[in-house]
Structure formats: structure tokens, C-alpha cells
Design a protein that fits this description.
Elements: H1 12-24, H2 28-34, E1 37-42, H3 47-53, E2 63-66, E3 83-88, H4 89-99, H5 104-119, H6 124-133
Parallel strand pairs: 1-3
Antiparallel strand pairs: 2-3
Helix pairs in contact: 1-5
Protein name: Metallopeptidase family protein
InterPro entries: Zincin_1 (IPR010428), Zincin_1_sf (IPR038555)
Organism: Phenylobacterium montanum
């Protein structure tokens, strides 16, 4: 009897590669308008971040936009730090396993697009309405 290959959860680098593909597949105009945004993959959000958002369960946050969104930026402000989109691997994998109705790439794309929406100054309700209209 042959032994099955061990199944391993996607690593941080694997998720980063999936996120990069998802970003590269967005329309060119969206990518251009997104501008300078760094993407960072971590296992979980830091405890201070969770506490600041009032989230007790670290699995409750799959992604986060950090920075001054494009609507609130001003040419008179000092140069802002690079905006960041965080994707949290373990909560994403947990949601993917629980849902079972989307591929991992689809879920990563959803979270990435959601956080880029915040970069454009959109609220959760705005983003949900756009996704519902899709």
C-alpha cells in the first residue's frame, strides 16, 4: 500500500504568492489607482491591533488596511507612510476550511479587494454593496 503525500497548510510565502496573483489579475486601472500599497502576510494580527478594533478572537480578522486612505490624503500633508494591506493567514485558512464553498484563491482575492477598497476610502457597507452588485 502506498503512502499518501502529506498535506501541508499553505505557508506565508504561499499566501503571498496567491495574493500577488490576485492583485495582478485586477483590472489595470484599479492597480494603477491603488498606487503605493505594500502587502504583508502574517499568521495573525498583533494583539494590540485586535484590542484596538475590539476583536477578542484572533481568528475574527482576516485582513486589515493600515494607512491614510486616498480620500483623506492631502498634498499639504507630510509624506505619508506607505499604506499597508495585511492578510492574516490562519484566519483566512480557518474561514476557507469552514466555508468549503470557495477556493483559497477566491477567498484571498476577496479579502485583498476588500482591504484595497478601504485604501480607496470605502466603508465596509460600500464594499459589500459593490460586491452584491457584482
Amino acid at each position: 500500500m502506498s503512502e499518501a503525500a502529506p498535506l501541508l497548510a499553505p505557508s506565508l510565502d504561499d499566501l503571498a504568492a496567491i495574493a500577488q496573483i490576485a492583485f495582478d489579475e485586477l483590472p489595470a486601472e484599479v492597480r494603477r489607482l491603488t498606487g503605493e500599497v505594500a502587502f504583508r502576510i502574517e499568521d495573525f494580527a498583533e494583539e494590540e491591533v485586535l484590542a484596538g478594533l475590539g476583536i477578542e478572537d484572533p481568528f475574527g480578522l482576516t485582513g486589515l488596511y493600515s494607512g491614510i486612505d486616498l480620500i483623506r490624503r492631502s498634498v499639504l500633508d507630510p509624506a505619508p507612510e506607505t499604506a499597508m494591506v495585511f492578510l492574516y493567514r490562519r484566519p483566512i485558512l480557518d474561514e476557507w476550511a469552514e466555508r468549503g464553498d470557495v477556493t483559497l484563491a477566491e477567498l484571498v482575492r476577496h479579502v485583498l479587494v476588500h482591504e484595497i477598497g478601504h485604501h480607496f476610502g470605502l466603508s465596509d457597507d460600500d464594499i459589500d454593496a459593490i460586491e452584491a452588485a457584482d
